[in-house]
Amino acid sequence: MKKRVYKASGIILSTVLMSSMLAACGGSTGSEGASTSTPDNATTKASTAPKEKVTLKILAPNNVEEFPAGSDVNNNEIINTLREKTGFNIQWELLPKDSEAARQKLNVLMASGDTPDLIISGDKQVFGNFVQQGLLAPLDTLLNEEGKQVKATLTADQWKSSTSDGKIYAVRTMTASTAVRALMVRQDWMDEAGIKAPKTQTEFYEALKALKVSKPDAVPFVANLSQTLSSLEAIQSMFYPPVDFVQKDGKVVYTPVEPGAKEFLTYTNKLYKEGLIDKEAVVIKAENLKEKLVSSKAAMSTVAWFDALPIEKSLKEKAPTAKLTYLPMPTGDNGSSGYSKVPSLTKYFMVPKASKHPKEIMQFLNKAVNEEIINYISFGNEGKHYEKKDGKFIATKEADNIRFRVYYNMFDTVALGLQRIDQKGFMPYFGPVEKTAKYEDVVDLVPPIPVVDKKSKELKDLRDEYFMKIITGALPLSAYDEFVSKWKQAGGEEVVKALNAAYNGK
């Protein structure tokens, strides 16, 4: 694979010419004899009965948006219009919001053989597992015959991310942004205490100490280690890239066994011991973390841009003068700086082998890639849900009544995605985070690799267990060497070798 990331262009989609269906059929009778006469009442009439729409069952990701009273996922103006525009009776079902529950549901469905016709998921592990188990239909022929407009949305190299043994097993689409999270702080508290934005790891430590003194009833830094280490990303990024696998000096390396990782653990353990990181971090979950920020019980944390708006809105309801802001990236003593990026490609559109309508699914997707449909799902109806000004979609108040349209988002463009972010009020948070997004995990740049997919959860759990215990003091810092040894025993080096082969061709 070429050693670079392919970024989607601002507009990738060409308008699809909607196919016309010839429904009329007729009949005629002939005779092998010489006579050409026909009986007086032998006229044959063409059938005018309408053709029944094919029902397509689609399983898609969940979200936080609610449906208005009297409507649901299969009864609302968006899906009814999609049925009309595509000519298919699409039946939508949403996966559980919890990622593990979603995986369990998918596994049960695939094992039963009673599958939907199309599965839309952003979970690469699920995709890789289904490919390895032979549960997905290859799409190459379908793309060439029924999905030419779909195929044109990605480059040949981008299609490699959903290819295994030379066959394509999923359609993919791009994301509007690769930015995720950054360091958010109570700026009003910083100003009140005369604390400047920290630029180094030493200044970061001093800022936390000053916040602890000035706001003794709040924790300086809140994290939810019981669920993920990503809440420490703002700290981790000062020591090593906050993704698992990166390209370094011409080869793929596993960052948690790089020298910076041990320095990170030493530094973070110090913060925890001194009460600068919330002692409850080992038990609280994401919602508890948000609540601590909302209730003025925490000064800073690593916060995703899409969480920042509701957090600040709720905070201001309780403390009108409060101000949250994203800080510039602090830089570690070793020069490390920068946060993680999500892949530029997102979602896997998978057709199970057990699907009853693979051909029709590709026909549906080939219509869904139409610019008119993409615009409709993104913004609704012009004149009702939005007005156009200077080429931009300006939302009306009525647009708030179709916020649930996000559930039906399939294909996208960068330009439209950014307009939606702006339209929903996220741009003040998204903008600063986008500037700090730097590292993309190599795993997201290569096709599914059996050994990588097989080992990923085991290695992640091993890393999380040791790191959390070392940070909180449940294990001594010397246990880091034991972690590295166990990582090797569990096949960590084998995974790195496989990623190098896929990414660097060696």
Brief summary:
With 506 residues, this protein is an alpha/beta fold. It contains 19 helices and 17 strands.
Low-confidence stretches: 1-47
Chain oligomer state: single chain
Characterize the main sheet.
5 strands, mixed
Strand content: 5-15%
Structural class: alpha/beta
Quickly count the helices: 19
**Strand adjacency order, main sheet:** 2-1-3-14-6
Tell me the overall shape. Answer: globular
The span between the termini is 10 Å
Which key terms come to mind for this protein?
506 residues, alpha/beta, 19 helices, disordered N terminus
Fold topology:
Layout: E1 55-60, H1 77-86, E2 89-94, H2 99-112, E3 118-121, H3 124-132, H4 140-145, H5 148-151, H6 156-159, E4 163-164, E5 167-168, E6 171-174, E7 181-186, H7 187-193, H8 201-214, E8 219-221, H9 233-236, E9 245-248, E10 251-254, H10 259-273, H11 286-294, E11 298-304, H12 305-318, E12 324-326, E13 339-341, E14 345-350, H13 358-368, H14 371-379, E15 386-389, E16 392-395, H15 414-423, H16 427-436, E17 437-440, H17 450-472, H18 479-489, H19 492-504
Parallel strand pairs: 1-2, 1-3, 8-11, 13-17
Antiparallel strand pairs: 3-14, 4-5, 6-14, 7-11, 7-12, 9-10, 15-16
